[in-house]
Every structure is written in structure tokens, then in C-alpha cells.
Amino acid sequence: RKEVEQDPGPFNVPEGATVAFNCTYSNSASQSFFWYRQDCRKEPKLLMSVYSSGNEDGRFTAQLNRASQYISLLIRDSKLSDSATYLCVVNRGYSTLTFGKGTMLLVSP
Amino acid sequence: NAGVTQTPKFQVLKTGQSMTLQCAQDMNHNSMYWYRQDPGMGLRLIYYSASEGTTDKGEVPNGYNVSRLNKREFSLRLESAAPSQTSVYFCASSEGGNWSEAFFGQGTRLTVV
């Protein structure tokens, strides 16, 4: 089993749609969790951290289920500018981040 | 505010040539990383340095060496480039610790022919 697995995508959605990304991780000792965003031919950038209680940042909601080793990201009211690849990231400790392969989102007019 | 700076941005090498990718950060971060990104493979950790003076292997260290020159700089060396090392290389840095954000450089697109 891969250490971090994501939906392969791509997800094609119209503007205004709600879209959800899923991610599972295999190492139960993982310490912290994140979603990063990567635009085409650009570097990854932090979108949001994922806390055990769940957290929201505007149109974005992240959830963590440690028992199921599952992380999710919900995007409401999708915008054209949300088109990007979304990377699920797990910190195993010792400052090392492990990335999923990413899920591409394409938002169309 | 430069953040993480990588050089060069693009490079073409012949098989067997050597080169060093340079990375510098101006955020006084403790930890620095080198990743490679290949289509369908995601970002994979090559080497990391949790703090100045230490380096450790990541998931795919074979064919690479690193040097943490000082707190700011972390270089990646390919001693004898192979076509399998054609990739996009990203340097990153963070304060260290479990909830630290990693900041990435703009990447180096390396082609080995």
C-alpha cells in the first residue's frame, strides 16, 4: 500500500460546483496533515493544514479521521481559479513530508 | 522577499556528466529538502537536512549526493547523470517541526540525454 494515496482524477466540474477530494495514509504514526496546491509547471504551495477537529477556510473545508487514516478536502462554489492539482501531504515526523500523487481539478465555465 | 531560490531553472546534460543544483533560503529555516517530481509519480523525497550539519536519505537517494553548506544553502549533486534522472527538482525549506509549512523553490527542469 502506498504511504499516501489520492483519487487519481482528473475531476472536471462546472463553475459553482462542490467537489470533494479523498486521501488515505498508511502510517498510523503520522503526525500532521496538509493539503497543498500546485498550479501547472509551478511549485507546490500550502493550501491548508488539516486538524483533527476539522477546519474551514472560506470555501475550503478539510477533515481528518485518524481512526480510518483518511483525509478529505471539500471545495464549495468552485471558481475557474481553483483549477490546479491538489496534493495530500503527511508528515511522518522528523520534518519529512510525504506527498500523494495529486488530484487534478479542472473547473470549466 | 526571495524565499527559496534554486539555480539553474533549466539544464540539459549528457549522460555521464555531473552537475550541482543550488538552493538557498532566506527565511532562517532549520530544515531543507530536495524532491523530484515525475509524471504519475508525485513528489518524492531525495534527501533532507533536518538541521544545519545533518543530512539524511529520503525515498530515492541513489545517484545523488547533498551538502548542507550552512543554514541557508543546501545543494544537490548528480555525479554521473543518467536519463532516469530527467525530472523536475524542487528544493524546499521549513522551520522544522510537525506543523511547519514547507516553502518551495520554483524548480529546476533537468533533461539528461
In short:
The complex is a heterodimer of chains A (109) and B (113). Chain A is an all-beta fold.
Helix content of chain B: under 10%
Compute the separation of the termini of chain A in Å: 37 Å
How many helix segments of chain A?
Answer: 0
Radius of gyration of chain A: 13 Å
Low-confidence stretches of chain A: none
Return the structural class of chain A.
mainly beta
Average of pLDDT of chain A: 93
Oligomer: heterodimer
Q: What would the principal axes of the Cα set say about the shape of chain B?
A: globular
The main sheet of chain B comes to: 7 strands, mixed
Structural class by secondary-structure content of chain B: mainly beta
**What gyration radius of chain B follows from the Cα positions, in whole Å?**
13 Å
Helix content of chain A: under 10%
| Total beta strand runs of chain A | 11
Number of helices of chain B: 0
Q: What composes the largest sheet of chain A?
A: 6 strands, mixed
- As a percent range, the share of strand residues of chain A is over 45%
